[in-house]
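Hey team,

Filing this mostly as a record. A colleague (T.K.) asked me to run one chain through the structure pipeline before their review meeting, and I want the input and output archived in the tracker in case anyone asks later how it was produced. No errors, nothing strange. Just documentation.

Input sequence:
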Amino acid sequence: MDLRIFSYLPNPRIWKATITARLCGITIDVRGSEPQDLSEWLWDFDAHPIDEGERPGIAAFSRQSRMGFGGKQLYKTDSFLVANPFGTVPAAFSPDGSIGIFESNSIMRAVARLGAAACPLYGEDAYSASRIDSFLDASLVFARDAQIYLLALLAGNVNKDIYESADAALHTYLGGLDRALSPSRSCLVGNSLSIADICVVSELALFLQERSHENTLRDLGLEPIAGHVIDERYPLITNHFRTLCQHEAFAPDVLPYLKKFSIKT
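Output structure:
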């Protein structure tokens, strides 16, 4: 094992690491369960469902949950919070658990660095690596509005302001990505696959989760943001997304998830 990740599952943001690992030949141990189950897990390097023998002492690790876990009590060890000081998932660890890595883009970068000799996914020089970082930073800006929107849909309290912010964020994101591609450039950074492409596929796939809330949107007189107009306005990035969904390193994660929401690629 080269890296361990603990997260709720499925989580498109950990695909950034798993896809990178397949391309680089890195071994990752992924632990976790559905979000509603994680209140019954001990959050630790050795994360696991809490068994009855642990119940008497588990209260010492009780923490109030953050956004996304419905206010449930979560159980996080002190060592988990030292390794991952913001206390969030996905959380990654070095093989001995001594070093924590947090935030999905950083976890992906760690995997790319571990496998750089086998597959240079993080650029060939400082300039290409920094251009890749530019796409990762732009993805973080998009991801913030996307997360607010998706959580509001899940909670059933989305409103027009949240919807319009997410709509503007998606169009800004896709517009930049579409301009970055061209008929002569097959990937976001040059003509070879990089973690920029992996990150973008993961973030866009996560956003497509809105399709499972079409009835909520229609009750508000709204349509899904990522509708047919996306293909027409941003053909290069939508084609790039579809092509990568079928790639052998992407398909094991992406295709079952999209099928769940009846999304064709």
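Quick notes for T.K.: The mean pLDDT is 93. The CA atoms of residues 178 and 237 lie 5 Å apart.
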